[in-house]
From TrEMBL:
Highest taxon of source: Bacteria
Family according to the record: Belongs to the bacterial solute-binding protein 7 family.
Lineage, top ranks: Bacteria, Bacillati, Bacillota, Tissierellia, Dethiosulfatibacter
Signal peptide: 1-21
Keywords: Receptor, Signal, Transport
Organism: Dethiosulfatibacter aminovorans DSM 17477
One GO biological process term: transmembrane transport
Signal keyword on record: yes
InterPro entries to which the protein is assigned, alphabetical: DctP_fam (IPR018389), TRAP_DctP (IPR004682), TRAP_DctP_sf (IPR038404)
NCBIfam families in the record: dctP (TIGR00787), TRAP_S1 (NF037995)
UniProt name for this protein: Tripartite ATP-independent transporter solute receptor, DctP family
GO CC annotation: outer membrane-bounded periplasmic space
Amino acid sequence: MKRKFSIVLVIALVMSLFVGCGNGTPADEQVETVVWKVAFEEIEGGTQDLYAKKFEELIEAKFEGRVDVELYPAGQLGFGSAQIELLKAGGVEFMLNYAAAVATTIPETQVLSLNFMFSEDPEVNMKVLNNGEGVKKLDELFLANDMVSLHWHNLGFMHWTSNRPLDSMDNFKGFKMRTMASPVIIENYKALGANPTPVPFMEVYSSLQLKMIDGQENPITAIQEMKFYEVQDYLTLSKHGILPGNLVANVGFWNGLSDEDKELVRSVFPELGEYIVGAQKNLTEERLQKIKDSSEIQVVELAPEIRAIYAEASLPVRDKFIEETGERGKEILDLFLKDLEIYK
C-alpha cells in the first residue's frame, strides 16, 4: 500500500512539473527577431553614419532582441530619388533623407534651404527641428506623399570654399557658385549677385579643378571628405545655412507597428537629438583641423558686419519661396520664423 502511494506521489510530482512549465516561458524559447534596414548616402564616419549607428544602438536596446537594425551607408542602395523610391516600395524600413532631395516632390521643404534664416547656435536649431511647429507641417506633407517623417536633425552648418575671398558683395558678382538643383538655393545666390551653377555632387571636385565653377557650399565634414580644400584657396566659415535631414519610415511598415512599438521608436529621439548635436560639433572641429593640417587654404570667419549685409540681401528670396509654394509655403515659413524666435 505504501509502495503504491509512493508511485502515485511521484507521478503527481512529475505532472506538476509539466503543468508548471506549461504556464511559463521555456528557458530556451527564442524571441523572434525582425530586421529593420536603414539606408543613407554618407560614407562611414560622417554625420549621417554617426546618427544611424546611435539609432541602431538605442533601438536594439529598447526592443531587447526583437529588432536587428541593419545599416546601408554610402548610397549602397541608391542615392536621392532612387533611395526615396526604394523606401516607398518597401525595400527598406527607414532612410536618412536630405531635405533638398525631396524638393521637387515637396517644394515646401525648401524653406530649410533659405540662407541666413537659421540660428548660428546649434542648440536653437535642434529645438526648432525637434519641437517646432514648422517641421510638424512638413511632416504632414511627407505623410501625404506616403512617407512618415519621424525625426529631424542638422547635419552641419553650411560654409563656402572659393577661389577668391567672399568678403564683399562685389566679390560675389559673376561668381560661379555650385549649387544643388533647388530653385530656392539658386535664388539664394542670385540675390548675392553670383552665378549659381547646378553641378552633381560627385562632379564638384573636378569642376573646381577645371575652373568650371569658382566655389561651392557644404558642411565642413563634406569639404574634408571630398577634399575640396585641395582645389580652393579660401574656406569661409559663414554658417549661412544648415544641412537638415530627417529619419523617414516606409508608411506601410510604420502603420503595421503596434502603438507600443511606435512609442518605443519615438522614445529614442530625445537622446538621439542631443547626441547628434554634440557628435556633429566634435566631428566638425576634428575635420576642420585636418583641413588646416593638410593644406594651405586660408580659413576665415565671416565678419558680423558682412554677414548682416548678406542676410539683408537674402531676404527677397523668402518672397520667391512664397511665390513658388503659395499660401501653404507662407504658413510654413511664418511658423519657422516664429519657432526661431521662441527658441533663440
